[in-house]
Amino acid sequence: SLILGNMWTTMASSAGLLLVLVFIFSYTLYAILRQKKISEMKTDFINNMTHEFKTPVATIMIASEALKDPEIVEDKKRISRLAGIIYDENVRLGNHIERVLSIARLEKKELKLEQAEVNLNDLVIAVLDSMDLQLQKKGAKVDLALDAIDPIIMGDELHFSNVLYNLIDNANKYSADHPKITIKTRNTAKGVVISIADEGIGMTKEHTKRIFDQFYRVPTGNLHDVKGFGLGLNYVQDIVNQMGGTIKVHSEKDKGTEFTISLPLN
Questions:
Q1: Which of 111, 143, 160 is the last residue of a domain?
Q2: Which of 34, 73, 171, 250 has the greatest CB tally within 10 Å of its CB?
Q3: Rounded distance, CA 202 to CA 200, Å?
Q4: Contact, 159 vs 239, CB < 8 A?
């Protein structure tokens, strides 16, 4: 019996050690695969960022070269048009840089949000006005139901306008021709809710779980000209959280996506 007891003790110890080794091996393998995936996402981010920066730089270069043409110099209308192109592309380039810097500041907890009264209904209208041309370009139809009777929140108007811009821009980009976008605001017992819905390509549950991850981009299927860094929704979530709110997403493949933000009232 003593020998059997020793054997069982040895076997139990061996089995325990084996389980520990299996766990360590599994965790190591998981960590390696996760690091590989993060590395791939960062590479994809760098490629996208390079493309996003190259496009305005190339446009500025072409417009600048055109301004050297003696024939164009004599045509004031063409000079004005080229100057407008250079200005617009500089603004676009500056916006790209600001987006990347904002994410870097958020990661380091260096981004300080201002606290001021913001009328959510008015801000929605202002953001839509600023996006009018790009929405018209795709023939987008925007339905508004700004039903919040008390739409005043405390927050940073600039950064929350960027939040709305990102969500409306995604609704526009991730839809086929003639996107249909619905924006609603309403009051609840605890605050105000804004929802932005589209009838675009939608997402699977697997993608929905990861869309707020930094650098993550949802595959776009047949929509090949969807540009971006994979930073937008990560930034959106961070800003909403810093304002004391929450953001949720509901999406169905090929049916559309709806983002719902809940914020406390002033």
A1: 111
A2: 171
A3: 6
A4: yes
Note whether 132 and 251 are same-domain residues. yes
Q: What is the CATH number of the domain that holds 44?
A: 1.10.287.130
CATH number at residue 160: 3.30.565.10
> Which residue range(s) make up the domain with 12?
1-111
Read off the tokens for 158: 């600039």
pLDDT, tens digit (0-9, with 9 covering 90-100), for 54-108: 767 777 888 888 888 888 877 888 888 888 888 877 877 776 676 666 666 666 6
Q: Are 84 and 209 part of one and the same domain?
A: no
Q: Are residues 207 and 189 in the same domain?
A: yes
Specify whether 71 is located in the same domain as 45: yes
Q: Could you say which of 62, 94, 111 is where a domain stops?
A: 111
pLDDT tens-place string over residues 151-204: 999 998 888 988 998 899 889 988 888 899 999 999 999 899 999 999 998 888
